[in-house]
User: Fold Bifunctional protein HldE from Arcobacter aquimarinus.
Amino acid sequence: MIKLNKKPNILVIGDLMIDHYLWGSCDRISPEAPVQVVNVKKESSVLGGAGNVINNLFALGANVDVISVMGDDTVANELKDLLEKIEVSSSNLIVEKNRKTSKKSRLIASQQQVLRYDMESIDDISEESSNKILENLKVNIKKYNSIILSDYGKGVLTTNLTKEIIKIANKNNIKILVDPKGKDYSKYKGSYTLTPNKKEAMEATNINIKDEKSLIKALEDLKQKCDLEVSLITLSENGIAILKDELTIKPTVAREVYDVTGAGDTVIASIAFALGNDLSIEEAISFANLAAGVVVGKIGSATASLDEIYEYESSLHKSSSTSHIKTFQEIEKLAYKFHELGKKVVFTNGCFDILHAGHVKYLEVAKSYGDVLIVGVNADSSVRKLKGPTRPINNQDDRAYILASLESVDYVVIFEEETPYELIKLVKPHTLVKGGDYEGKDVVGQDIANELKLVQFVDGKSTTNTIKRIQNSETSN
Assistant:
């Protein structure tokens, strides 16, 4: 994948809300009524609706502005605080009296949602609020690479306001991407693209999408009626269908699907971010598929960072070995994420001078102890101190590259010190693996790891013996 280095300026306009969660357990039924009694142990709140699009853009590294309308209430203050935490200004949020800021509360008992209750206003915003949005947009339009309209049907993106926003954007050659709502998409006419899922597209077009022919017909219908530059439909586990000059289906790249909550927000945010990095729409959709593959592997409305997306793509394709060789700083970030995701991290180290079958089998066993195997490799200077001035035979870059090409090895890190203690402190492995010759000895880093595993070497396989055989062969010749 091309590295995306730009930080595009993206404006989000739409329905902001708070997703509120009450987490607890249930051990009994109420004596007052046949309902569960939930003992709430934890409470959390996150940005929802258009706010989840903002979260995704922030995670990718975009510069984000938001325009929306909220009530004059405590929920609005809570919403501002959540925006402030991700360094997104709330200065463009318009307060409308007698309006309730949307808050959706979910009661979760033993990981099961048992109740949801909403407090919100869903009436159209006032004409005064609409005018303020348009005035703000006209003043700042030139600074944006693109605009995302995140429509959750809560009254912000009224028909007239939406049409005017699109008109202003087109006049200034700014792409409008829309996450649509409802069955009538006429108000989105003139947008760059819409991102409906299959069910939404069927409702909007009255076309039963059951095969490629009907899919093309639905895409053509959307493109024509909404005057889109690009027509696309998200197809869940089957990827994203795009109609520009011809039909293309970009397949999904999700390995494990735990939760599809918020995946649509990730898709539209990722497409806008990729387009802001000068990718073509086809490349942008491939990027969005990768991002969606990351988030559906997480629980709840989630986001994907660039590092996670690159790492995910790498894990799918086992990309070039060089990409699996990391610096201390890079491995520290990766290890932290693996711990956060509940992955079991395994660490081992060595010189690995002339790689042989014994090394490969040792590393395969090491990998079997967890999810991610990180291998520390002694730098050339370190090997000389341990093995003498004639070693290593292969330099550190060659040794690291060969190790990184092995299927069992996820990451390789070169360390200059005589021991890998500082590296182990950064990785904080669950399992530390060493050779069986360390039986009864102190192992560097075992005070940091949760457990130590000793692996017996394959008899007759050693780098020293290999070198001796080579030298004896040269002497006899």
Observations:
- Confidence is low (pLDDT under 50) at residues 255-260.
- The chain has two domains: 9-305, 321-476.
